[in-house]
Amino acid sequence: MRRYRVASEGGFWLDRCGACGGVWFDGDEWDATVAAGLLDRLPTLFSDAWQRQIEQEASERYWDERLRERVGAEDLDRVDAFRQWAWAHPERSLIMARLGERPEEVPDEPESEPA
Ligand SMILES: [Zn+2]
Prior knowledge:
Layout: E1 2-5, E2 13-16, E3 23-24, H1 29-35, H2 48-71, H3 73-88, H4 92-100
Antiparallel strand pairs: 1-2, 2-3
Zinc ion (ZN) binds at residues 17, 19-20, 22.
């Protein structure tokens, strides 16, 4: 038996037999699989492609949560809203270059929480 992560959120894992490919459902795992709409896709959940995608999504979610903790949810939402707008702008490379320039009036060390 090997335990596979089958969804990037909610700590959703399933056990699968390496010898015959049979899936073992513990407790409420069957109901959870049905509820998540994953039953039709059961064979693909254990494929390398799906496993890679799940891993990537989980990783992105992890870093997004760390960023949200460090920056603060409200400030990060402002950044994301601006980023959305800037990326849709025809001159986004000029906007990004401008963002990288240090403003004239800025303290030497921005206030920051210790890491
Ligand atoms: Zn088996």
